[in-house]
Amino acid sequence: MRATYAREWTAASDSPEERLLDDAIDDTFPASDPVALNQPGSVVYARYAAREREARRSRRRLADRTAALLLIGAAVAATLLVVRRKRPRDELQ
Q: Chain centroid to CA 47: how far?
């Protein structure tokens, strides 16, 4: 609440350094309160959002790789099945 009030009256002279200082104060006082991620302009929110985007990308890449490997495996299995059935029985023994 205090930092929000401070931001309102210094909004005209907000430099990047002042914003970083405000974010640091917001994140450290009071020490017993959890960090509020609902402030879209805060450094903590930006870091959290970046981690979440990277985690989503990683999960998506893993899902894509898994699907590709399953398709390759299915294609190999189908090819082996077709080749095995087309061979004459004499060659197999």
A: 11
Q: Is 60 exceeded by the pLDDT of residue 12?
A: no
If you ran DSSP here, which 8-state letter would residue 88 be given?
A: -
Report in angstroms the alpha-carbon separations of 44 from 2, 59, 68, 90: 18, 23, 36, 71
Run of H or E residues at 52: helix 43-86
Q: Which domain holds residue 17?
A: 2-92
Distance between CA 43 and CA 56 in Å, rounded?
20
Number of domains the chain is built from? 1
> 2, 64, 74, 65: which is closest to 33 by C-alpha?
2
- For 32-36, 43-47, 50-54, which range has the lowest pLDDT when averaged over its residues? 32-36
CA distance 69 to 75: 10
Q: How far apart are CA 44 and CA 65, in angstroms?
A: 32
